[in-house]
């Protein structure tokens, strides 16, 4: 069934609303599926206007005769669309719009009051037209298209009047697949949040998470299990699977949140999910319902609390999640360095660090050794002495609280380093453990420094053990070293910046709008 057109052509040709946008990144830009992009390019639209061939909003161009921006398919001289016969679904249904309702519990069809014609049309005509479009959108072929392109569903707009719910589309995006009539059984339905089996996270889950998290091509340090599990005494971690995604939760005194976004944990289409090309477009059909279900679970636990959130979102995911209607705000970035720079410590940029290492080597008899279980008690004693030194140095209040919580995390790493796939080293001075460090390989090119403790009474030792850690990374042929974020602590940020990071890797927190 073709989609009908309600607005007469004479009205469209005189309209000054459609195809025009106030800013280049307007969320109102039309969305093109992969097939729609292909057809538009075949009709002469520059492929550079499509940032993602798998599906995206079209890039607009400056208005040559006024303010704002235009769709590149729009001819301002004639007010005609250059690809009218192959215009995308987003444009075909306008001035109707598909969007989430205000509480994101349902996908709905509404009419946009910005359209001049809708202000004059007879309500009965609008309702009849909406009923026809609803029937088309709820057909199986349209449901499949919408589920594969969840950004076709816009965020809630107050100036769009809701006309009809779209229950089948809602169910498909939520992970369910409802049958199309009485007497039919639902098939292939994914569990709802209330039905999802939530399991406590244990060390036995490490290998499974390692395989799944490796599918995300990011240098962010938290895409490994170790930086989460070492905090198990502070947070209760649990996980479940929703619409083919692995979902990790952390529960603490303030409520429930997600330290990572849902990650695909199977390959239903046979692709190699460890391929670095795996980005949101590769699993967007499962991401939208998984996120919606996860936020529903957090709302059930937290009520209206602002605790409900998803942390450690890579920058590459921003546009997609914003298009789904979520709000993103920056989190403290990770500090990423070139390994070779930290090993060589060459030039004026590293003059003080080089001098510190030289002083330590000159003044002390030392050994650098791999961490052994027999070193555990000595390392714990060192941690307590180091923590006391930090407290005495006038640490900021936030830092004092974090330091008090961190002993349990260090104990977990020292005790279960093998299960967490951590590599540890100790520095002995005159036979006594005076420093230790633990890290892990995030990928073939990125080494992450998880923990580092050095006796503050030994000049140059902190710089020395950090350089040794970087040498270990170089030995593993890791091009980059990630020292994680600075936790918002000015003193820690200052020390990390002193090593001249190659990049501050952006990270974001997602909340519901």
Brief overview:
The chain has 513 residues and is α+β, with helices and mostly antiparallel strands. It has 17 helices and 23 strands. It starts with 8 loop residues before the first helix and ends with a strand.
Written account of the structure:
The chain has 513 residues and is an alpha+beta fold. Strands 16-23-17-22-21-20-19-18 form an eight-stranded mixed β-sheet, with helices on both faces. Strands 11, 12, 13, 14 and 15 form a five-stranded antiparallel β-sheet that branches. Strands 1-5-4 form a three-stranded antiparallel β-sheet, with no helix packed on it. The two termini are 35 Å apart.
- Average pLDDT works out at 86
The CATH architecture of the largest domain is 3-Layer(aba) Sandwich
Low-confidence stretches: 176-195, 267-277
CATH homologous superfamily grouping of the largest domain: Gcn5-related N-acetyltransferase (GNAT)
Strand content: 15-25%
Number of strands: 23
For the termini, the CA-CA separation is 35 Å
Strand order of the largest sheet: 16-23-17-22-21-20-19-18
CATH topology of the largest domain: Aminopeptidase
Structural class label = alpha+beta
The CATH class name of the largest domain reads Alpha Beta
Number of helices: 17
Query: Radius of gyration in whole Å, from Cα?
Result: 28 Å
Give helix % range. 25-40%
Number of separate domains: 4
Largest sheet properties: 8 strands, mixed
Shape: elongated
């Amino acid at each position: 069934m073709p989609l009908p057109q309600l607005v007469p052509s004479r009205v469209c040709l005189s309209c000054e609303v459609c195809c025009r946008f106030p800013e280049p990144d307007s969320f109102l830009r039309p969305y093109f599926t992969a097939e729609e992009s292909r057809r538009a390019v075949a009709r002469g639209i520059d492929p550079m206007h499509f940032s993602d061939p798998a599906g995206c909003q079209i890039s607009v161009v400056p208005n040559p005769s006024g303010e704002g921006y235009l769709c590149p398919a729009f001819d301002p001289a004639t007010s005609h669309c250059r690809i009218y016969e192959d215009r995308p679904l987003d444009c075909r249904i306008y001035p109707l719009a598909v969007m989430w309702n205000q509480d994101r519990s349902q996908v709905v069809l509404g009419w946009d009051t910005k359209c001049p014609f809708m202000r004059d049309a007879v309500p009965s005509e609008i309702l009849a037209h909406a009923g026809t479009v609803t029937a088309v959108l709820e057909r199986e072929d349209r449901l499949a298209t919408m589920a594969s392109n969840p950004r076709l569903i816009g965020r809630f707009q107050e100036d769009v009047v809701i006309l009809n719910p779209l229950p089948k589309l809602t169910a498909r995006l939520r992970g369910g697949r409802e049958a199309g009539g009485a007497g039919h059984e639902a098939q292939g339905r994914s569990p709802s949040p209330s039905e999802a089996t939530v399991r406590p996270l244990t060390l036995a889950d490490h290998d499974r998470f390692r395989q799944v998290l490796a599918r995300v091509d990011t240098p962010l340090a938290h895409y490994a299990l170790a930086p989460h599990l070492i905090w198990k005494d502070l947070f209760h971690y649990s996980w479940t699977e929703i619409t083919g995604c692995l979902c990790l939760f952390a529960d603490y005194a303030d409520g429930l949140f997600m330290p990572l976004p849902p990650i695909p944990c199977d390959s239903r289409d046979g692709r190699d999910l460890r391929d670095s090309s795996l980005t949101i477009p590769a699993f967007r059909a499962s991401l939208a319902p998984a996120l919606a279900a996860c936020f529903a679970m957090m709302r059930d636990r937290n009520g209206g609390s602002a605790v409900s959130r998803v942390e450690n979102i890579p920058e590459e995911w921003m546009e997609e999640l914003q298009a789904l209607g979520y709000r993103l705000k920056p989190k403290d970035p990770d500090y990423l360095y070139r390994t070779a720079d930290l090993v060589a410590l060459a030039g004026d940029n590293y003059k003080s660090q080089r001098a510190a290492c030289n002083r330590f080597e000159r003044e002390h008899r030392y050994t650098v050794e791999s961490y052994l279980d027999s070193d555990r008690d000595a390392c714990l004693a060192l941690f307590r002495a180091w923590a006391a030194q930090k407290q005495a140095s006038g640490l900021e209040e936030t830092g004092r609280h974090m330091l008090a919580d961190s002993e349990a995390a260090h104990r977990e790493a020292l005790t279960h380093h093998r299960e967490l796939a951590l590599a540890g080293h100790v520095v002995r001075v005159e036979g006594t453990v005076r420093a230790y460090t633990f890290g892990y390989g995030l990928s073939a090119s990125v080494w992450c420094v998880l923990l580092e403790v050095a006796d503050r009474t030994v000049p140059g030792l902190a710089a020395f053990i950090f350089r040794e850690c970087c040498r270990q990374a170089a030995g593993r042929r890791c091009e980059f070293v990630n020292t994680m974020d600075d936790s918002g602590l000015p003193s820690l940020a200052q020390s990390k910046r002193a090593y001249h990071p190659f990049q501050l890797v952006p990270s974001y927190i997602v909340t519901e709008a």
